[in-house]
Amino acid sequence: MGKVLTPEGYKKLKKELKRLKEIRLPEIAEKIKQAKELGDLSENAEYHAAKEEQGIVNGKIMEIETMLKGADIIDVSKNAADIISVGSTIKLKGSESESTFTIVGANETDPIKGKISNESPIGQALLGHKLGDEVEINLPERGKSVKYKVLEIT
After folding, report:
1. Which of 4, 61, 71, 80 has the most CB within a 10 Å radius?
2. Where in the chain is the domain with CATH 1.10.287.180?
3. Total-model pTM
4. Contact by Cβ (8 Å): 74, 86
5. In angstroms, how far is CA 71 from the centroid of its own chain?
6. Location of each CATH 3.10.50.30 domain in the chain
């Protein structure tokens, strides 16, 4: 089994791949062309910067293509409504507050938007739990464990 992606994450990667191939690479090719017209390439900073940028973008393209090729797309419509799985949005109550998270594949993680990886300590601790379960999550970076109650799964 490869890395998991939600359909949303798959679409986002496909969109980024298209942008890199159809917009960024042609822009960089134009920069290289213009830099070549300036003459001596051995001391042409614009040329070397554009070539370096081209290498970075090509590397990113290869990385995304590899991710997409090996990805297992999760059909979130087949998720059991009462069990936490990849693609589930869950509401948790801790001792001090309530939090809402969506469990996503590792390549889709965005903590600011509440998207946590299925491979993270929190994601791993939550997977498979049901509505009403109390879950103890070990947070090694904080040096403690925290208990949460699962209030909602969508």
Report:
1. 4
2. 4-73
3. 0.71
4. yes
5. 12
6. 76-153
44 contacts 140 by C-beta, under 8 angstroms: no
Distance CA 28, CA 57 (A): 9
Residue labelled with tokens 């393209």: 61
The DSSP bridge partners found for residue 116 are 103
Question: Closest by alpha carbon to 10, among 81, 86, 78?
Answer: 86
Q: Is 73 in contact with 5 (CB distance < 8 Å)?
A: yes
Q: Is the predicted pLDDT of residue 80 greater than 80, yes or no? A: no
φ, ψ of residue 23 in degrees (nearest 5): -115, -55
Cβ atoms 102, 88 nearer than 8 A = yes
Range with the largest mean pLDDT of 15-19, 73-77, 102-106, 148-152: 15-19
Residues facing 101 on adjacent strands: 90
For the domain bounded by 76-153, which CATH number is listed? 3.10.50.30
